[in-house]
Amino acid sequence: MLKAFLAALFLCAPTLAAADDMLIIAHRGASAERPEHTLAAYERAIDKGADYIEPDLVVTKDLVLISRHENNLADTTDVASREEFESRRRDKEIDGQRIAGWFAEDFTLEELRTLRARERIPAIRPANARFNGLYQVPTLEEIVMLVRAKEAETGRTIGLYPELKHPTFFLQAEGIDMVDLLLAELRRLNINPDDSIYIQSFEPSALGRLNQRSDFKLVQLVKPDGGPVDEPDLRYAEMVTPTGLAEVATFADAVGATIPMVLNPDGSPTSLVGDAKAAGLEVHAWTVRPENAFLPAPLKGQGGDAARGNSAALMDMLEVAGVTGVFTDEPAGPDSGN
C-alpha cells in the first residue's frame, strides 16, 4: 500500500512545489554527516541550509548548559577511555531506568573540556567515526556564538531549537532547576521570544513553567507509548486526542511527534495534524534519517543498515500530511554527501 501511495504522491508533485516550505530542523546538527551535538555538526547543518539547529541541553556540575543527547556521556565521548575519570562511573536512576555511565552533572566544564566527542552509532555511520577525537562538547553559549557568526557570514536568520533533557531528574535528584538556568542563560545571551527559537521538552511541567515565566515558543514532545515522567497518570496517547491537544495548547505552541504518529503504515496522513491545527498547534515531525536502518521497508535502498534509502519520499509524505516542521539528520537532503 505504501508503494501505491508513493505513486500518487509523485503524481501530485506540482501541488507539493506550491506548498509552504516546511521548517528544516537539523536534528542534533547534521548528525548523518558529523558526530552529533558538536559545533562541526551544527555548522555543517547551517551550511546545508537548515532553518533551525537543535541542541539537546544537560547541565555540568558547575551549572553550565552543554549540548549532549543524554547526561550520560558514555556513548558520545571518550570518557570511558580516560583513566583519570574511572572513579566517576556511577549507576543512576533516570526517568525510572537504572543507567550506568559517566554523567555530565558530575563533571565541571573545565573537566569536560578534556573530553572529545565520538560518533554514537559507528556501525551505521562509519564515515562519522573518522572525526572521533576532534571536537569538544559545546556549551549553549558557544552554539549561540556560532549561530551569530554564521548569520553575519550568510545574511540568513538561523533558529535555535533547544530541548531540556530530563528536567525532573535534574530538579529532584540533583537540585538543579533547568528552567531557571535556561531562562537566565537566554537573558544573558540576549535571546528574546521574538527571535527564531523554539524550546521543547517531553515534560509538560517544565513547559508549563516556561509558559508562565516567558513568551518563548514551546513544543510538547510526544511518542506512541508511555507518558511524561513528571505526569505518571498521563499517557502521550491521551495528549494527542482532540481533548488532550486542546490542553496542550494552553501552554505550548506546537507538538513534536514521531513520524508513525503523523503517517499511517501506508504513508497516508493520520488525523494528528488536522486535530492539532484545530487546537491551534503546529506539528513538527521527528526524525527523518537517510539510512536503511531508520526507514520503512518500501523506502530502503540496496545494501545493509548503513546504506541509504529514499528519505526524500518520506519528506514528501510529511509535507503532504501538512506538518510545519521536520527534524532531520540530513538537512540538505539525500544528495548532500559527507
Automatic annotation (TrEMBL):
Lineage of producing organism: Bacteria, Pseudomonadati, Pseudomonadota, Alphaproteobacteria, Sphingomonadales
One BP annotation, GO: lipid metabolic process
Organism expressing this protein natively: Altererythrobacter xiamenensis
Catalyzed reactions per annotation: a sn-glycero-3-phosphodiester + H2O = an alcohol + sn-glycerol 3-phosphate + H(+)
EC number: 3.1.4.46
Signal peptide: 1-19
Keyword Hydrolase: yes
GO cellular component: periplasmic space
UniProt record similarity statement: Belongs to the glycerophosphoryl diester phosphodiesterase family.
Alphabetized UniProt keyword annotations: Glycerol metabolism, Hydrolase, Signal
InterPro entries: GP_PDE_dom, PLC-like_Pdiesterase_TIM-brl
PROSITE patterns: GP_PDE
Pfam families: GDPD
GO molecular function: glycerophosphodiester phosphodiesterase activity
Protein name in UniProt: glycerophosphodiester phosphodiesterase
Residue ranges of domain GP-PDE in the record: 22-338
PANTHER family: GLYCEROPHOSPHODIESTER PHOSPHODIESTERASE GDPD5-RELATED (PTHR43620:SF7), GLYCEROPHOSPHORYL DIESTER PHOSPHODIESTERASE (PTHR43620)
